[in-house]
Model the fold of this input.
Amino acid sequence: MERRKFDWGVVLGLALLGFSRSMGWALNKGFSFPLLSDYTSSAFVKGSILALEGVIGLIVPPLLGYYSDTLRSKHGRRRPFIFVGGVLAAIATLMIWTAYKIGAPLWAFALTLGFLYLSLHLYTAQFRALMPDTIESGQRGKASGVITLLEWAGNLFLFGLGGFMVAKYGKDHIGPFGLTAIFLFLAAVFVYYRVREPEAPEIKGNESLSEYVKSIFATKDFLKFYTAQILWWMSFEFIAIFLYGIIAFILKGAATKENIDAVTSMGLYLMALFNVAVLVGSLPGGYIYDRVGRRLSIIIGGLIFALPQLWGWFIHTETQIYAALLIAGVGWGALIAASYPVVGDLLTKFEKEAFTGRYYGVYEATKSIPVLLAGTIGGAIVDLAGGNYRILFPLGAFLVLLAMPLIWSMKELEVRKE
Done:
């Protein structure tokens, strides 16, 4: 079979799309918890509302990923979903700001958040699937490094901008919401009109929906990888969802509304620092994946991410918080860059490359399950612990360490010499 040329245009187009989507998710991570804190002080209630992302992400990407594999249209298999989802996500960000400013009740504000989650997940699997659709195995680490770099740069941009605007204008300024809407819209339009998908492959022996679900559980390496990803993303979401509560508890002794408002700007700057560290870790993570080894590169990133969480129980100062997140970010960047190409490589191994949409849909679902679990279970644990948010650190470290033996036992995840 003729080898496809590495297409920098597609990679950069996907990187731009990842940048805009990251702004959307960062807007959620950076502003939803502080805004919800004006409605309720319960960690469980706030966590459960934010866990809507997990419910939607568990259902939508696997289903739409499956159907995008079989779509035959002059617009391509993936681009129609990207265009519609990006436009709706842009509208949703403005609806969130509007609902908060007009004093909408909690249920209505929660619905606007749910609409954002639905819009972004309409094209989650399709965004992920385009990379292995167009990039050969053996080159995917490089592509993953670039895409991951821009994805986390989007987080960095939004968190840095958000921290500045909260410090200057307050948390309800339209700036971060409006700019995110612009980027989401423009990126979706750019990819739709300028990125060309390869010709859709002929699908022989197409899996039915039930066969597709069964095959995930029947193929041990897929099952191990998806399970491991649930564990390390749950660890991440413990910190990401409840970061403001953690900071307020460590520095001020309690996560009250007033204390959360006081640390909101710092929290955004901390997220920006974390994303700088992720950028530092992502490019070598992709390189190591291609050159050193699949399993080892993932495990190195996971261990670096887990160590500062073990330290987290003993953290008491602002400087220590910054240092811990800096180290964790480097590990997280390496872990994500190394884990993104795994599904594509397993599909190559098992000769299922026509099915990237559905399997990356499950890949994204296994990132959504942790949001659901972390939001509800994490919030309940914090409330049961009397508002002690620090308890989330050792729990998160334990989950990451639990995932590492699963990765090491993946028999088909060997280095491919190209």
About this structure: The chain has a mean pLDDT of 83. The chain has one domain: 8-197+208-408. Residues 8-197+208-408 form a domain with the Growth Hormone; Chain: A; fold (CATH 1.20.1250.20).
